[in-house]
Amino acid sequence: MADFASSASSSCIASGSHNLDGEVFDIQTTVPSLGDGGENSVLIEVIHEVDLLQEEAEHFVQHVERQLKMLRSLIHTNIARFQEWTVNLEDKTWLRARVTYAGCEGGKVMEYLSTNANADRQRLILGISRGLSYLHSNHIVHGNLNPSNVHIGYDVGDKDPIPRINGFGFSYAIRDESVHLKVEGACFVSLRYVPPEILAGDEVPYDRRGDVWSLGCTLSQILLGRRPYEGIRNEYHLLFTVMDPYEWGSPDPFYEAFQRCLAREPSLRPSTSDVVESLELAIASGTNRKLLEVGEHNIMNEFQIGDRFKSNMGTYAAASFTDAINNFAWQNKLSIDWVFYESIGHGPVTLLWTCTCIIGGQSYVGSAFPSRKDAKNDASKMACICLGVVP
Which CATH class is domain 291-387? Predict the structure, then answer.
């Protein structure tokens, strides 16, 4: 209690901002972003606040200590990086706790997409799913996942956007039996992303299955560019609707990877780890389909890499695609390498390997069950198809 109170005397962040609903906001500050030492936007959010005329300070302290303990334990590339916290007494009776995150300099995900129309939405969707899966694997329920609580950051020296989840004001550890997020908590969040069992006022906690529904709404908005229940203007009408948040005119192979998140029956929703696996498979198979289409098109048009290689194109006596592409690279004096990673599974068991064949500076992706050797041959096959190499 003493340590907590002494920290509350630090200077007020964003003094005068009456953020009564826990909404996230951005400010400019001189707090350096981790890794670059420069002056960047950091993310500030209110994680808890009370009116001391209605609630005792002791309850406030217990709640904030619980949230801070949780935030300090979160280390994942798709989770906003906790940096510091403050507690301030404002307007004489309002006690507010705020936290600061680094690594969110790209702004909210939908704002980022509005100025980066060609961004890889599938990779953003996969990153968000991995972040939520990480929380669930650590027995943490987010409780308020929506696009406003996903910000874009960047790793040092890397220009690729990384989605990072924030907005932990309603989050709780499942092991903590003193926390129960029911429908009362939903009045402070956007109802568009709240699962139907909570909107219905059923006496059920907002658990991991509720998070999965919110994930489905969030991912769908990122993929389609429109909010859930787009035809409903007044969010409070959602309390009385039985319509689905999205209507799809035609099946979308990538959407199918996470559409079960929006099952109205909670028990039918997949786990977040299942969602991640399905998305990884969808991305891998989609990449292979595109490469195959390109390869077939190039072969039909007698694709040639260049005059330098014309005399060496054709049939290569080989027992496998890997041998064939190796022979091709050797005869044409091209560098060749393979990079492997586990698409599904970790540790001693790997369900799916993905391999990238890098030849002459160009990359060709393959994947296979269940061995690295098969994935290597599949990547070599894609390279052979695209380069017109016949084993």
Answer: alpha beta
